[in-house]
């Protein structure tokens, strides 16, 4: 290996070590609602069940199967369920480095990899048992392969693009925004082609699109009937779905700074501005940014035109493009002044690290159950008040206590607490269940402890109530 190759390998190893160090502390946190609900419904019965069953939108099919396999091999706990996402998150760091190198140039790769190593929008999804880190990984591969294939027409790149798009869609349906946007671009290329080679490259890309669609359909075939049965769930019919003019829209905007929290994103805003300014005069960078950020336009059509809804974490396919934008800004600042470049990069990193150090757990299911278990007196009983899935049972069983649920959205609450032996109630998502919480407070119950959780904009809080 040449000296340059050895240096690149060492740099990659260093960036991956930083990425691992940023992620490992979160792996032992309590599982939160979606992680438990998805595993109990799909993964607990094994990988085949996860690949062939779809009874709720919680199934990120490929990730669910990977988590099931990990749990079978290592035993079901926080670490094993999150291991596939951790590996995907580390892979996304390397894939984004590669994307930057093939799309813009080798010098930009380390900057983009370093951004992926520390951005909260990249770190946090890779530390939970959900499919967003896998979407980011496959998106980085798809973006890089698309730019390279569109430029050079290499068949292997079209094959990689088709496979990455299919795997991303298999993981989370919203990842289909990537091939949808790229296919629209290719169709435009076909119409605007000025010579035969350009037209052949565009037509080859459309052929790869058909391959990607076929592969995704084949992979999803066992669950397509379930998806169709649940198609009404994709509509914003309940009135409580996230909106672009609310919290989730603000988080999407903040994500351009690498974080969902405004103060942390603000620290990286100068890099985003410099990256956008540089793209004005750098065609390769501009093409790469359009390819990686453009699919968000397709995603935004869901809430804007299709009466659907969108969470900020759903657009995980944008994260490699965000890393590229910030990396381009850092590299541009460094080229003008090493001091200025280092200072702006350090400011962004300090903001991201401060965010990761202070964000806390997503949802403290384990701690809330443990609090109740430690304080229950002989003869006392406890119940849980929450959403449709009795996710608290995971930790109640481990703590050795009975804690029956009160039905979806506290439907059976009054019947449960009619038993005077019920002295404890653990309320998940108290903001969403303000009515049942108030009814308890009006009949002699009081909040004994609160356990904050940042997921869903702070709605991951748990309140533990005790009958007085």
How many helices in DSSP terms? 22
Structural class, from helix and strand content?
A: alpha/beta
Q: What low-confidence regions span 5 or more consecutive residues with pLDDT below 50? A: none
Q: Please identify the oligomeric state.
A: single chain
Give the overall shape.
Answer: globular
* Total count of strands: 5
Strand order of the largest sheet: 2-1-3-5-4
Percentage beta strand: 5-15%
Largest sheet: 5 strands, mixed
Task: Describe the 3D structure.
- The protein has 468 residues and is α/β, with parallel strands linked by helices.
- It has 2 domains: 3-358, no CATH class; 365-467, D-Maltodextrin-Binding Protein, domain 2, CATH 3.40.190.
- Helix content is 63%, strand content 6%.
- The protein has 22 helices and 5 strands.
- A 5-stranded mixed beta sheet has the order 2-1-3-5-4, sandwiched between helices.
- Helix 5 packs antiparallel against helix 6, helix 14 (262-280) crosses helix 17 and helix 15 (283-293) runs antiparallel to helix 17 (319-336).
- The protein starts with a helix and ends with a strand.
- The relative contact order is 0.10.
Give a nutshell description of this structure.
Helix content is 63%, strand content 6%. The protein is α/β, with parallel strands linked by helices and 468 residues long.
